[in-house]
């Protein structure tokens, strides 16, 4: 597990009372801060990119702030709608489209958001998108005769194509979750050097999903790996109870959690095989869990605690997972010395 002293890209989950002691470190190496269901605290360093995501925190009781740190001192600024910070190897950024994305053209908003993102990355010299977090309201609602998650996938893929970026293979790790309100909110990590895409042998690559899941496939890979001389970092995409391309265990949150954990284990195994030999274990990762509104938390936490170290401390957020039958999704970030 990366500690802040490592001087590595890292993520912290901080309680309000832990923040004051960390402000010096955040001032120096902060890349960004993310608050869930609440505004990030006002006493964060100026120009630190901040995102507020409308996914209420279900667990633990004390609100946690997600804080990303770079390898070394960061430079921060604002370009157009993007608040950003970079450390020479990575850039973190946050942007939102519209005050409230509930009632408008989500496909168009997604296209414009990703157009701006790609232009920014190319201009700034960090062209390699490693991880994108996507949040918007009404994910299952129909808009112009198509579910909004599917509209989002069209807009996202269009922007990749327009930027002459591949829509299979070298794609960022990602997640896409439904909120109950708010804008289309996107935050990201991009890198100076290429992000190596990793797929899951238990799952069909999402970019190859058949048309039954929508006219355009989702543009993400199951994980990405960032390598430097002294560090390997891995972003694991939102992972759910999908085998091949099919959702398993509809209505059974405990079984979906077990299936998702099996997918995570298979993905970590893939990281550790040739050619990557990344040497990761389950305990090298920090996890974040999304649970569909109205779904009981206890059976999910029971399954998590059977497999994941320190399960009691994991941040659990209430959000709509992008297929109606899916109740749980888990994402992760990990970093270790090679
Ligand atoms: C899945 O595996 C579940 O559209 O960016 C997971 C991670 C999911 C990312 C995305 C969707 C996305 O298809 C959903």
What are the SSEs and their pairings?
Layout: E1 10-15, H1 19-29, E2 30-36, E3 50-53, E4 57-59, E5 64-69, E6 75-79, E7 82-86, E8 90-97, H2 106-124, E9 128-137, E10 142-143, E11 146-147, H3 148-162, E12 173-179, E13 184-191, E14 196-198, E15 223-228, E16 231-239, E17 242-243, E18 246-247, H4 253-272, E19 285-291, H5 298-307, E20 315-318, E21 328-336
Parallel strand pairs: 2-3, 9-12, 19-20
Antiparallel strand pairs: 1-5, 2-5, 4-20, 6-7, 7-8, 8-13, 9-13, 10-11, 14-15, 15-16, 16-21, 17-18, 19-21
Residues 134, 174-176, 206, 218, 220, 237-238, 240, 242, 322 line the site of 3-(2-carboxyethyl)benzoic acid.
Which short descriptors sum up this protein?
binds 3-(2-carboxyethyl)benzoic acid, alpha+beta, globular, about 350 residues, seven-stranded mixed sheet, six-stranded mixed sheet, single chain
Task: Give a structural overview.
The chain has 338 residues and is α+β, with helices and mostly antiparallel strands. It is built from five helices and 21 strands. The chain has helices at 19-29, 106-124, 148-162, 253-272, 298-307; strands at residues 10-15, 30-36, 50-53, 57-59, 64-69, 75-79, 82-86, 90-97, 128-137, 142-143, 146-147, 173-179, 184-191, 196-198, 223-228, 231-239, 242-243, 246-247, 285-291, 315-318, 328-336. A hairpin with a 2-residue loop joins strand 15 and strand 16. The longest helix has 20 residues, at 253-272. The radius of gyration is 18 Å and the shape is globular. The site of 3-(2-carboxyethyl)benzoic acid has 12 residues, from strand 12 and strand 16.
